[in-house]
Each structure stands twice: as structure tokens, then as C-alpha cells.
Design goal:
The complex is a heterotrimer of chains A (268), B (221) and C (217). Chain A has 268 residues and is an alpha/beta fold. Chain A is built from 10 helices and 12 strands. In chain A, strand 2 and strand 3 form a beta hairpin. Chain B has 221 residues and is mostly helical. Chain B has a single domain, classed as Orthogonal Bundle (MetI-like fold), CATH 1.10.3720.10. In chain B, helix 2 packs across helix 8, helix 2 runs antiparallel to helix 9 and helix 5 packs antiparallel against helix 8. The termini of chain B are far apart. The chains are: A alpha/beta (268), B mainly alpha (221), C mainly alpha (217). Chains in contact: A-B, A-C, B-C. The interface between B and C is large, with 38 and 36 residues.
Chain lengths: 268, 221, 217
């Protein structure tokens, strides 16, 4: 009897597997559109040009991915806290949104291997007299809600026991508040800090140093049960590096020393 | 189709934090209501003052409060005025935004309520030797507040709902802010916001019931 | 007064955002009003006790922040039901029900404002329920309800600013996008406020006119 049930179950399972719907990768290819979640207030990774068209490293990366899949790319703008909810609610297919591959997030979404790596920098309002990470003690500081650096900075402020931490919903609001003097300093990725300071849009802010946080590896993400797609994303990231496209995009949008995407001493 | 796994346990563990947030939400709502009523009375007086510039100021306030989104008003109170070097903390910005909105709507309600009070009453008060202000204070105001009591209750409920907009100006201690913060960390979006929704519902019910009891006590003849 | 880097292109971008605001408002108010009239009439016909479940459900839409309604609907449709819905669809669905919840109250108030004796008189003249509703209740209730309905429509227009949360780029979101690029918050916010004012003023004026005209007779 037991054998019978088992066989029946196995049979059903195989039949179901046989008729199961196409996976996400198939869906994307047959729909002809790849919808990427991209953060567009995060220069040089994602921003808008003079005609308000999305541009940036992440935008190009999404275009490359779409080209590899042979489909059209559609950029869906998502603020930082909305990236993963947008994926989970089926609004996008993949996230190309400079997303740190934290273990907490991996409970919800599946990550590819890292496709970029950030250093964290402290940017301050010139009037606050902050010249290093430690100087932020006792000041009003802020970052983008829910990001890697926000979590680390909030923990640091609590450890210092003075000053206050303020999360804003977008990177743009953080720099706006910083230049207005509502925040004394912020910790952000060094690339966005440099890009914003150099843009000349913000008066009276400067990058004053590095934040002593670990290198922030960021990865592409998709639904965590879409192994076919995740597998494709891993290979895609590998190919981008192998073919030199990664270096090319880095030179176009960021410039300088190319970040190493591997971690020594461990397998991924 | 229904293969989503609800993680209520993980979300319910955050309930104490969310209830703390609910207290802050109530603080903002009550403060904005008290100040809003006072400002609305002032706006009503300005409109009655007979002075054109003063009435124009009051009318402009009311029109802006009623014809632009509350989110816009709160965003303005934080990022807008900061262009002039005026800085408010997220809490204060949110409070200013909602109070501005409350005062505008309430002033309009008061205007409607005033129509229901015969002008002859003021004149009667004046002929008893009251000053214009005294007549307003002792004859008109109590009746006005009574007639406008139901709209005021509605505005109080809106004030509670509006606190959810504080998140756009960096507020993370109110109920919505706390929930959004937790969501950004754990991504149990549905569970967390469902709990927040229930808390909001309970608060608004308590407010409306409380207002009804208060009305029954205050306005019996 | 303002030295701005704003281009004609950006103004078109803002106008597109305003267009989205108007689109969402028109769809939601249209569907919400039809549903609201239906719910309102049903509530009056059934009486308080029988309509209690409907009253309860509609009340929820008026007791929870719209932002949470949008987030929940979006999460429920996408995560739990796994439906592929555009942000615009979710936004319009939630706003329609939100409108319907308020509209049902207005309709109920309007119908209740028609004196029972008037309706009884109509019925005793041999009018059917439908005729009574059509020729007696509707004209009278509309007078009571229309100013509130205009207030509601304006309210929905302003509340549509919150649909940014389901990735719909309406007027306020467009403004924030431009602020990100141009860093002129005060100027752009004033411009945005002016846009809202222009959209709502005609309707608001019409409401004020009706209120004045109908309140004196």
C-alpha cells in the first residue's frame, strides 16, 4: 500500500512537473520584455539625463542583460526601500539596483554573484565641521532607509549614544537634506557621493573620508525560487567581467581603479 | 496559486515597536488638532474682521490647504522651507504640515457653521454691552464648535491617517514610519502592513466612539 | 525672481505627471461614484442591521491610511495572488473603492435628507419604487449630495499623490524626479502646487457656485 501511494505520488509529481508552467526565464523570453528595477536617484549607477531618460551603470547593465536574452529592456524606477517589494509584487523581473547581498534579504529574494562593489564614504555639510567618520558622533546624520549603510550607521549612532539618525526614503532626499543643512553628514557609497559633489548641484558639501564599513558587494536579484533565472544571472555577471564589458562600463560611468568582485579564501 | 507563505510570527514579534509608533502617531494627531482648532478660530476671526488684507491672508491659507495634497504640504514644510535656511526635524515638519491642513479645513467648516447662527445673536450680545470679541467668544464660538463638532471628528480621523505621510520627510518613529522601517529590513510587507492597518483601524474607532460619548456629554440640553 | 535650469522638456515632463494625476482621478472617481451610488442605495434599502457587513467593509476604507491600502493591495495582488497587474491598475482599483466608501456615505446622507413624507406621498400617488427613486429622490438628493461629491472628487485628486508608492509617476513624483536632477526644491514645489491648483480650481469654484445657488431656496 505504502509503495502504491509513493508510486502514485511520484507519478503525480512527474506529471505535474511535465505540465508545470514555464519558469520565469521562459516567461521573460516569450514576453519579449525584461523589466528591471533600477534606482534612478543614485548617480552614476542610475540617474536621468536632461530629457529625463534613465541612464547610468545599472541602466546599461539592464540593457546588456536584455540584449543577451534577446528582449527589450524596460526600466522601472524604484526608490531604495521599494526595490524588493517591487520584485515580490511582480512589478519587475529582476533587480539591477545596486543591492547589497545581505543574509536578511536573502531570506526573501535570490541573489546572483556580486556584479559591483562599493566603498562607503562620509559626506558632510561644510558648516558642520566634520572631517572624519568619528566626527559624526553627536551630530544629526542620515542615510537611505533600509540600505546596507543605513543599517550600519544607525547601529553606530546607537553605539555612540548621542546624536540622531534620520532615514529618508530616497538617496535624492538624503543629499537634498544634507545640502540644506538638515543633516550634518551622511554615509553613502563613495561613487554616489563623488558624483553628487562633482555635479555642482549641491553647494557646501564635500566628501571627507571613508567609512570603516566592510566592502559592500552588490548583486542582481530575482525571485528566490527561480533557479533558472538566477543561474542565468550568475553566468551573465561572469561573462560581463570576462568580455571586458564590466571594465568598459566602469570606465564610462565611474572611472578609476576597477573594483575586484572576488573574495579571497572562500568559495561562492 | 496560493503558495505564499505568511510569516505572521516574525511580524507579530514587532508588535511592541509598532504600538510605540502608534503612541507617537497619536501625539502628532492630537497636537495638530489642538493647534489646528486654535488657528482655525484665528483664521475665522480674520475672515470676519472686515479688513481686506487680513481676510485675504486667511482665504489664501484655506485655499492652499484645501487645494493641494497633504503630502505636498508636508514635503513643503520640510524640504521647501529649508531653501530659506529654516530647518525643522521630521517630527516638527510633519506636525506643521498636518496642522496647516487641519486649520484650513476646520476654518472652512467653521465658516459653514457660522452661516447657521443668526446674525441677530451678535447684535443682541452687542446691545447687552458686549464688545465684538466678547460676543464672538461667549455667544458665537460655543455654538460654532457645537455645529462643527462632527466635521471636527472627521478631521481628527484624517489627522491620524495623515501621519502616515511623515515617512517622506524622514520620520521613522510614528506607526507608519516604524512599519516601513521594519519592512525595509525584513520585507514581510503584507504581514507588517496588515498589522499596522488593524492598529490604525482600532485607533480611529476609539476616536470616533470617544467623540460620540463626548458629544453626548457636552451637548445635552 | 527665480534663476532656473528648467527647460521646456521638463515642463512637458511635469505636464505628463499632471496628466497621470488627472487620468487616475477620472477613472477612480467614475468607477467609485457608480459603486458608491450602488452601495449607498443598498444600505438605505436594507436598513442598518442588514447592511451592517457592507457598512463595516466600507468603513475600513475610511479608517486606514490610503498609503497602507495601496501597499497592502499591491502586496496582496502580487505576492499572494501572484497576479501580473500594472501599478496603474492597482492604484485605480484601490482609489475606486476608497472613493466608493466615501461616496456611499454621501449618497446615503442625500437619500436620508429627502423627507419620508414626500416619498410616501409619491408612493400613494401610485408611483413604483423605481419611479419614486427616479423622479422624487434623485433630484432632491442630488442637491444635497453634489457639493459633498465635488469635495470628494477634489479629495481623490489630491490623494492620488500617494500612488507613487506603486510606481506610478504622477505629478508630485515627477516633481521629485526633477528636484533630484535640478536641485531647486522651492521653485519646483511651488510649480507643482500651482499645477494642483490649476487642476482643482475650476471644480472647486463650481462647487462653491452650486453651494451658493442651492442654499438660498
Amino acid at each position: 500500500m505504502k509503495t502504491f501511494t509513493l508510486t502514485a505520488a511520484l507519478l503525480t509529481a512527474t506529471t505535474l512537473a511535465g505540465t508545470a508552467q514555464a519558469d520565469k526565464l521562459d516567461d521573460i523570453i516569450s514576453s519579449g520584455t525584461l523589466r528591471c528595477a533600477v534606482v534612478l536617484d543614485f548617480p552614476p549607477m542610475g540617474m536621468r539625463d536632461d530629457s529625463n531618460t534613465p541612464i547610468g551603470f545599472d541602466v546599461d547593465y539592464c540593457n546588456d542583460l536584455a540584449a543577451a536574452l534577446g528582449v527589450e529592456a524596460e526600466i522601472v524606477e524604484t526608490p531604495f526601500p521599494e526595490r524588493i517589494p517591487a520584485l515580490m509584487s511582480g512589478r519587475v523581473d529582476v533587480g539591477v539596483a545596486s543591492t547589497s547581498d545581505t543574509l536578511e534579504r536573502a531570506k526573501t529574494v535570490g541573489f546572483s554573484v556580486p556584479y559591483f562593489a562599493f566603498e562607503m564614504a562620509v559626506t558632510s555639510n561644510d558648516e558642520a565641521g566634520i572631517t572624519s567618520f568619528e566626527d559624526m558622533k553627536g551630530h544629526t546624520v542620515g542615510a537611505v532607509a533600509g540600505t546596507y549603510e543605513a543599517i550600519a550607521l544607525q547601529a553606530q549612532v546607537e553605539a555612540w549614544g548621542e546624536g540622531s539618525f534620520r532615514p529618508y526614503q530616497t538617496q535624492a532626499d538624503v543629499f537634498l537634506a544634507l545640502s540644506q543643512g538638515q543633516l550634518d553628514a551622511t554615509v553613502s557609497t563613495s561613487t554616489v557621493a563623488q558624483a553628487n559633489v562633482q555635479s555642482g548641484n549641491f553647494d557646501g558639501i564635500s566628501v571627507v573620508g571613508k567609512a570603516p564599513f566592510d566592502t559592500d558587494y552588490v548583486a542582481l536579484f530575482a525571485k528566490r525560487d527561480e533557479y533558472g533565472l538566477l543561474n542565468y544571472l550568475n553566468l551573465f555577471v561572469n561573462q560581463q567581467v570576462r568580455t571586458g564589458r564590466y571594465a568598459e562600463l566602469y570606465e564610462t560611468w565611474v572611472g578609476g581603479e576597477l573594483p575586484d568582485l572576488t573574495v579571497g579564501g572562500v568559495y561562492r | 496559486m496560493f503558495d505564499y507563505t505568511f510569516q505572521w510570527k516574525q511580524a507579530m514579534a514587532k508588535l511592541p515597536q509598532m504600538l510605540d509608533g502608534a503612541v507617537v502617531t497619536m501625539e502628532v494627531a492630537v497636537l495638530s488638532m489642538v493647534i489646528g482648532i486654535l488657528l482655525a478660530v484665528v483664521l475665522t476671526l480674520l475672515r470676519l474682521s472686515g479688513s481686506r488684507p487680513l481676510a485675504a491672508i486667511a482665504t489664501t491659507w484655506v485655499e492652499i490647504a484645501r487645494n493641494t495634497p497633504a503630502l505636498f504640504q508636508i514635503y513643503m514644510a520640510h524640504f521647501g522651507v529649508a531653501s530659506f535656511g529654516i530647518h525643522f526635524s521630521p517630527f516638527v515638519s510633519l506636525l506643521i504640515g498636518i496642522t496647516f491642513n487641519n486649520a484650513g479645513y476646520l476654518a472652512e467648516n467653521f465658516r459653514g457653521a457660522l452661516k447657521a447662527i443668526p446674525e441677530t445673536q451678535t447684535r443682541a450680545g452687542r446691545s447687552l454691552g458686549m464688545s465684538q470679541l466678547q460676543a464672538f467668544r461667549y455667544i458665537i464660538l460655543p455654538q460654532m464648535l457645537r455645529i462643527a463638532f462632527l466635521p471636527m471628528t472627521n478631521q481628527m480621523v484624517w489627522a491620524i491617517l495623515m501621519t502616515s505621510l511623515g515617512v517622506t520627510v524622514g520620520m521613522n518613529t510614528d506607526l507608519y514610519g516604524v512599519t516601513q522601517d521594519l519592512n525595509a529590513l525584513t520585507f514581510r510587507t503584507f504581514e507588517l502592513f496588515a498589522i499596522a492597518a488593524v492598529i490604525f483601524y482600532v485607533i480611529t474607532k476609539i476616536i470616533t466612539l470617544g467623540a460620540r460619548l463626548l458629544a453626548a456629554r457636552l451637548f445635552r440640553y | 525672481m527665480f534663476d532656473t535650469a528648467l527647460t521646456a522638456n521638463d515642463l512637458i515632463f511635469l505636464a505628463k505627471g499632471a496628466g497621470m494625476t488627472i487620468l487616475v482621478t477620472i477613472i477612480s472617481v467614475a468607477i467609485g461614484t457608480v459603486l458608491g451610488i450602488l452601495f449607498g442605495v443598498v444600505r438605505v434599502q436594507l436598513g442598518a442591521a442588514l447592511a451592517a457587513p457592507l457598512t463595516f467593509v466600507l468603513d475600513i476604507f475610511r479608517s486606514i491610511p490610503l498609503l497602507i491600502q495601496l501597499v497592502l493591495a499591491n502586496a496582496f495582488a502580487g505576492m499572494v495572488l501572484k497576479l501580473q497587474m500594472s501599478g496603474l491598475t492597482v492604484a485605480c482599483m484601490v482609489l475606486s473603492l476608497y472613493t466608493a466608501a466615501y461616496c456611499a456615505e454621501i449618497v446615503r446622507g442625500g437619500i436620508d435628507a429627502v423627507p419620508a413624507t414626500t416619498r410616501r406621498a409619491a408612493r400613494s400617488l401610485g408611483m413604483s419604487w423605481g419611479q419614486d427613486m427616479r423622479y422624487i429622490v434623485m433630484p432632491l438628493a442630488t442637491r444635497v449630495a453634489l457639493p459633498s461629491w465635488i469635495g470628494l472628487a477634489l479629495g481623490v485628486m489630491k490623494d492620488s499623490a500617494l500612488v507613487y508608492v506603486v510606481q506610478v509617476t504622477e505629478l508630485l513624483k515627477s516633481t521629485q524626479i526633477l528636484i533630484t536632477r535640478l536641485q531647486e526644491p522651492m521653485f519646483l514645489l511651488l510649480l507643482c502646487g500651482a499645477f494642483y491648483f490649476i487642476i482643482s480650481l475650476p471644480l472647486a469654484r463650481f462647487g462653491g457656485y452650486l453651494e451658493k445657488r442651492w442654499s438660498n431656496d
